[in-house]
What does this fold into?
Amino acid sequence: MEATRAGEAGKGFAVVAREIRRLADSCAETASHIQEVSGVVTGAVNYLSGSAQELAEYLGEALRVQLEQSVQTGRQYRGDAAYIETAMASFNGQADRLRESMEDVAASISSISSAVEEAVAGVTGVTGSTRVLAEEMAGITAGMDANQEIVGELRRQVDIFANL
It folds into this structure.
């Protein structure tokens, strides 16, 4: 309007005013576009932040579960090792008792041999030697019974050890 009243001199002012209006419209459109882009970027950042948080929580839980499983497995290995150690100690103890019993049997056989030799040497000592022989046989029988028990226990321990 002012350009119309100003006449010829106002024509230049009208051109400048139109250009300023176009520039203002363009600035408003650019500002609107920038706001849209900013909203998209903000949404994407928020989405990525939430996804990163979910991923961190998931990984934290997965690692915790894996660690707990590893600890449990380690405890199981330690328990199994202690059981095997106990079984081996028991096995060694029974083997020692079996060896001692075998030594007793060997000593009894040696005594029996000595008794037999004495019996052969003199007919008069036959009765005494027979009594000694019978007592030693009873001792051998008792020793053999003990050996049978030890052998049975040893077989059970070997079966347990074999089933590990």
